[in-house]
Amino acid sequence: MLPFISKHSSLLLMLAAIIGFLFPTASQAFFPILPFILFFLMLFTLLGIKQAALLRQLATLKVWGYALFHAIGLSIISCTIAYLFGASQALLLAISAVSATGSLFATPAIARSIGLDTLNAMAMTIASTLLMPAILYVNLLLIEGNEFSLDMQSYFVRLTIFIAGPMLLSALCHRYVNPDYLHRVHTKLAQFTILLVFAFPFGLVGEFREMFNISALVGLQYLAMGIAICTLFFIAGYFCYRSTGIDNALLAAITAANRNVLLTFTVAGSYLGPEYLALMGAIQLPTYTLPLIVKFIAPRLHQGRLQINQ
What we know:
This protein has 310 residues and is an all-alpha fold. The protein has helices spanning 2-7, 9-22, 24-30, 34-47, 51-58, 61-84, 89-100, 107-113, 118-144, 152-176, 179-197, 199-204, 206-214, 216-240, 246-257, 261-268, 273-282, 284-309. The protein has one domain: Na+/H+ antiporter like fold. The protein is globular. The relative contact order is 0.18.
């Protein structure tokens, strides 16, 4: 069963979002346990990565260059487009918050499921998450002036729990557990990791369904915006990094489109307003459709590159 799930994980991720939308009560009931699932997802992923290698990767300019593109570059692009299309201040605020958001903590597991570099995905995820509060602060300052506050205490508590905690536990395991035994254990755990990822599209889409129940038209409008934002981030990431190779470009694209909107909501609180909550749910389906798209287009892009080289 697990090999089947792993093989078809890209399709199942999309289906998890659809099922959560169809059964909003179950989705909303699942929502409170997502932070606990997030912790174990990070831990299981980190067990397969040597911490020294991760820290070396985090120390590279290319990782922080990506983080700046992820937060600043895409904030400028998306907010400019939204402004030109006449978005309200509240909607512009929501889009700027999504643009500042770091990549999903599930991104390394998703990268593994579609054959991309897990180590680089983890480094890019951590860097974009660390950069998020500063960019979010600037974005909100430019749009709202001084009439807001960020819950930095909650943010650093969550950073400690969900990043520093798993990194420390993983480092202790690599230090004190026999490498061969740890490798065997991780090989087994890796089969379950993708199951944990399914929880996020399923658990985050329930609130979005409530909007559809109130107004299908408004729900469709936000879904269209969610698709547009994810598509914009994906295309921008791919073309900005295409010169570094197809796999690197696809990794940048999917990391740029994956957004940890739940963490951003925790940091900024209810100040972000109902527009952000609606957008948070609306991007779940397009976000978790992207791995299926990447799995489909990756071999074709590689084949096209080979034909050009020949």
